[in-house]
Design a protein that fits this description.
3 helices, 54 residues, mainly alpha
Length: 54
């Protein structure tokens, strides 16, 4: 069972993600500060992290 959205059918858009997680930008800045080489990643970061247009 999954949540379906109007934008893509499977995944929320970046605007929806930011509404659900208002501190997303601050978290991405902290991630870059503590992991500047991108060693620790996951699908959420790969889809919505900095420089991603999803």
């Amino acid at each position: 069972m999954g949540v379906r959205t109007r934008r893509t059918g499977d995944h929320p858009g970046k605007e929806q993600l930011q509404r659900a997680y208002p501190a997303w930008d601050a978290a991405m800045r902290a991630k870059h500060r503590y992991d500047p080489h991108g060693v620790f990643r996951n699908e959420l970061y790969d889809r919505y992290g900095p420089g991603r247009n999803s």
